[in-house]
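Let's sit down with a protein and look at its sequence and fold side by side. Please make up or recall a protein chain and show it to me in full. Label the sequence line and the structure token line clearly, so we can match residues to local backbone shapes. Go ahead whenever you are ready, and we will take it from there.
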Amino acid sequence: ASNIVGAGIRPDYIGKNSRRVEAYKNTFDAWAESTACDYENHNNLWGLQHLWAATVVESGGCLVRQVVNNALAFPLVLQTLEQQYLDESKSGVTEKNREIINGIEFNEDGSVHGYWIKTSLRSTYRVDNSKFYPADEIIHFYWKDRPGQHLGVGWMHSVSDLINQRQEWRDTVLTQMRLAACFGLIVEEAPKDMGLGDSERGIRDEDGNVFSEVEAGMIGYTDKGSNVTTVSPPNINQTTDFSSSVVEDIAAGVGITREQITGNFSGVTWASGRLARGEFYTNLDRWQHFMMIPGLNKVHDWFDNIYTLKKGKVNIVKRSWIIPQRSAVNPKEELEVDIRKVRSAAMTPQQFTRKHGVKFSDAVQAWKDAKTEMGDLPFDFDPSKFSAAGNQLDNNDSASSNASSNTEKDDKTDNKE
């Protein structure tokens, strides 16, 4: 879930009227950053995204309901419900010939008409009341593996037995290790009490207390002539081959890397780490673009509808989503590759900034603000004053002269306007 959502999958806009688009963007950002968008008032929109993704992974799916509260500055509120709130007792065919399966009502053509959601989960032995909500008021987040699948399942369902068996193996090994630590000595001593031994006392310690179980480092005493079995702890020649293979099977079953499960990257080379990450990033692309973003588009449509009613329609030419930046195996090399792609037109500046988790418009505006604030002060991250090697440019250098000429053109354009 942390890799799918990160610090938030955030929208970006391109519109004809930049001033109105900026006002629209500011309104959305203010609503998304506030916990008022959460029905339970715990998370902002980015926290809700993580909650949705985590719930899908853990239990299979979650429901997001649109709620309108006109008492708020922006009235859109999102209620998050677990998938178990679907009223599975609702099943059959309605009077209008619609079929209900597991609380989901379908039209005759097979499309979703709406959802029957329980109003209470107090007891499994009582018939809970449920309420119908149209499909356009509900978002159902879940991963769909096959046509016609209408409910999600926990992502660890295919490896749950392996997880259980590995835990049993760990418990068994721990018991073996405890037994292996129970090395002991039994001392056969002369009889006492006029030569008559006390055979009922059994094996005892130096204080005369009878042992009830094998203990680590025990030294036992017994009477002469007693029949005693030597304490021989098991020989532990334990390897991690079994555990490693099971962990690899679990990782493959849920679509992540072995290192992500264990947190141990000591045995990973640069090449193997990059290959494993590449496979994982392919899965991330599917989860982000096929599961999360379609649902987020619907959330944004709800926002857009309310914004249009309150302030009028904004002509958004394109709305896209900025995926959180992904960790790199070799950040320096991968950054250099991206820079070369931009310089060779294989990647646009917009694609570059989105890949690194930044809106292009925000990056450009931030640079404008920084240039205004810096004035004539030279900083080596300014490409108009310093080369990529860190050498300061003068007016004879092409980059500097081009920057100066462009500045003069901008000044003339501003004067004309």
